[in-house]
Design goal:
The structure is a homodimer. By secondary structure, chain A is mainly alpha-helical. Chain A has one domain (4-129): Arc Repressor Mutant, subunit A (Orthogonal Bundle). Chain A has helices at 4-40, 44-55, 62-68, 74-86, 108-129; strands spanning 90-94, 102-106. The first copy, chain A, has a two-stranded antiparallel ribbon. The longest helix of chain A has 37 residues, at 4-40. Chain A starts with a helix and ends with a helix. The A-B interface holds A 11, 14-15, 17-18, 21-28, 51, 71, 118, 122, 125-126, 129 and B 11, 14-15, 17-18, 21-28, 51, 71, 118, 122, 125-126, 129. The structure holds a DNA duplex.
Amino acid sequence: MATTRDRQLHDRELVEQWRSIQDSYFRTAGAIDRALEAKFDIGLNEFEILDLVADSEESACRMKALGERTPMTQSAVSKVVDRLEKAGLVSRQTCVDDRRSLFLELTEAGRALHSSAAVEHRALLKENLG
Amino acid sequence: MATTRDRQLHDRELVEQWRSIQDSYFRTAGAIDRALEAKFDIGLNEFEILDLVADSEESACRMKALGERTPMTQSAVSKVVDRLEKAGLVSRQTCVDDRRSLFLELTEAGRALHSSAAVEHRALLKENLG
DNA sequence: TGTCATTGAATGACGCGTCATATACATTGA
DNA sequence: TCAATGTATATGACGCGTCATTCAATGACA
């Protein structure tokens, strides 16, 4: 049978493992966020949405789909898109089939920024993930 | 030499890997946070501080040391401790050697809550980390 | 066609973390 | 002993994410 001592050891390992995950998550996310903020004036979440939009160019009614590919809330996505739109990087297009939906398009500026920022993003991922 | 195609494949893998880390991080943290919130009325960060304090019972001048064991900011730690203190789970003790410092002690209630919450916490870690 | 439930998105109140700063104490060195 | 500098924590303004709610458009079905 498992002794109390066994259980404590196991718990300690679990907690260690968790702390190390947290650490590497925060380290990586933080590094990317600061770099993008400094060089391109957008945060990590903004970039991730930009990246998803860039990636799925051409299928319709994005907004909804985005929510499914990100741990962000629907309302968070909506606000991130607000900022991207205000920054002139993305535009919301109404969707003719279903007028509740919207789909997103990169503007020229958005496309340009994305392609530079993506290089940075990939580089930092590589650097941080090993 | 590496072709553009090679680089794109490699980037895609990196991004996949990163999304999967994010996913498992958010899934785990979210699950723990919701459970602790529901059952014990404290958030994940509160628990982590509680857990650190419980773990290091007896060495002096905690506050500072805590900052070094957590990805949280010094000011975040200060505010988490505010809440824990308001909830009566922890108390700040002035430190005689260095009156700028504080060290923290679990109250009875804090100790009790921590030991129940820790069980839940470990269980969810195990469940989510595999 | 007229209800009723559902769905995509936006919004406002709210909590929390961060940054820059403030405050109190400590240390150093002349 | 008195600056000057450094260190431990607290605090206020601010940005962002979340939750609950709202609104418009759709779908289902009698």
